[in-house]
Specification:
- The chain has 3 domains: 102 residues, Immunoglobulin-like; 124 residues, Immunoglobulins (Immunoglobulin-like, Sandwich); 103 residues, Immunoglobulin-like (Sandwich), CATH 2.60.40.
- The protein starts with a helix and ends with a strand.
- A hairpin with a 4-residue loop joins strand 9 and strand 10.
- The chain is 8% helix and 52% strand.
- The longest helix has 18 residues.
- The strands form 6 sheets. Strands 9-10-12-16-14 form a 5-stranded antiparallel beta sheet. It has a 5-stranded mixed beta sheet with strand order 11-18-17-13-15, with no helix packed on it.
């Protein structure tokens, strides 16, 4: 009888492990690379999914030191749904290499998980132009002139921090103008800096507000509050380049097994001198219709025609890539991006080069 009872308990325990809450991370380690101390706080979002059968709850998320701050999904995460843990590291006053851990406590079968962030902080430079190589009007310097988001889901928000430096001998109030963008917001759009000091703006990008798929190009301007900036001038712009893709987080295993698969006939087109047209195909090797959300070209010297909005399983769509007439001479290059509902790779890119 005791053996039967022990066997029953063992089966019950095994079942609880199989059908309980299971937390699965896309990755558990992030390397920020090397960045200047003036960048201040840097952040990364660790995405996770409840791959179990019952709701997942994060009870606590604790960092290994006070320089690292976690923020996480507080509400229960249903089976098949996703959450995130945003980890922020404060580099101010901390030059050198770092490695910090964050411990995740939850009701998952594992109980705890450990995340790692690491990188290297270069000490503040006595020469501000080294840390802030881009010069704007009114003697304002910045550490970047372009923000790239290779992909953002159509229901996702992402954050990016960038720094500005007051290179004048007087206090300066600086504004970050988002140009009434629906895609970009800034947490605090105005900061006041004393002479020869740096400050930060934190931008948030909301993929749901774009209302479309594919590449998007917008910009913000950095300007003194007391002055005016010509938005048409590139002098004070910080360009924002992003690509909006479909969110596939709610897909089931059956959905994945039957998903469309986009397959290109070639991933590079090399136009030799005198050749101006080339055909490529995109084939659906999956089991459900492939939807072509958008076809985007990043260089005006090239154009794309043809194709279909929907490609049935086993079928193909043909596209013609054309090199436009131009007075320019030399080598030209660009990329054509196909945005689809293929969950394994929603972005398919064809590199294009041509002798003009």
């Amino acid at each position: 009888m005791k053996k039967i009872a022990l066997a029953a308990l063992s089966m019950l325990f095994s079942a609880s492990l199989t059908y309980g809450q299971t937390i699965s991370f896309e990755k558990k380690e992030h390397h920020f690379g090397t960045f200047p101390e003036e960048s201040g706080k840097v952040s990364y979002e660790f995405a996770f999914t409840n791959t179990g059968e019952t709701p997942l709850v994060l009870n606590k998320v604790a960092a290994s030191c006070g320089c690292t701050t976690p923020e996480w999904t507080k509400e229960p995460v249903a089976p098949g749904k996703s959450g995130k843990i945003e980890v922020t590291y404060n580099a101010q006053g901390r030059p050198g290499a770092f490695g910090k851990t964050v411990t995740v406590y939850s009701n998952s079968t594992s109980g705890t998980e450990t995340l790692l962030i690491k990188g290297e902080v270069t000490a503040k430079s006595k020469n501000p132009e080294t840390a802030y190589p881009f010069s704007l009007d009114n003697n304002i310097l910045t550490n970047k002139k372009e923000i790239k988001l290779p992909s953002i889901k159509n229901n996702e928000t992402k954050k990016e921090v960038f720094s500005v430096f007051n290179n004048t001998d007087s206090p300066l109030e600086i504004k970050c103008n988002t140009q009434n963008s629906k895609f970009i917001t800034v947490q605090e759009n105005t900061i006041r800096l004393t002479p020869k000091t740096a400050g930060q703006f934190t931008l948030e990008f909301n993929g749901a507000n774009v209302g479309d798929f594919g590449p998007i190009k917008e910009f913000i301007t950095i300007e003194p509050v007391s002055g005016t900036t010509n938005a048409k001038s590139d002098k004070n712009r910080v360009n924002v380049l992003a690509t909006v893709v479909e969110n596939f987080d709610s897909m089931t295993k059956e959905d994945w097994d039957n998903a469309p698969i986009a397959q290109l006939s070639m991933v590079m087109v090399d136009f030799k001198e005198g050749v101006r047209k080339e055909k490529i195909e995109i084939k659906n090797t999956g089991k459900t219709p492939l939807k072509i959300r958008k076809v985007a070209v990043d260089n005006d010297l090239f154009s794309v025609a043809g194709g279909k909005d929907v490609v049935k399983p086993g079928s193909s769509a043909a596209y013609t890539i054309t090199v436009k007439d131009s007075a320019a001479k030399g080598k030209a290059s660009g990329a054509i991006t196909f945005v689809t509902n293929d969950p394994s790779a929603p972005l398919r890119t064809v590199k294009v080069v041509a002798d003009l």
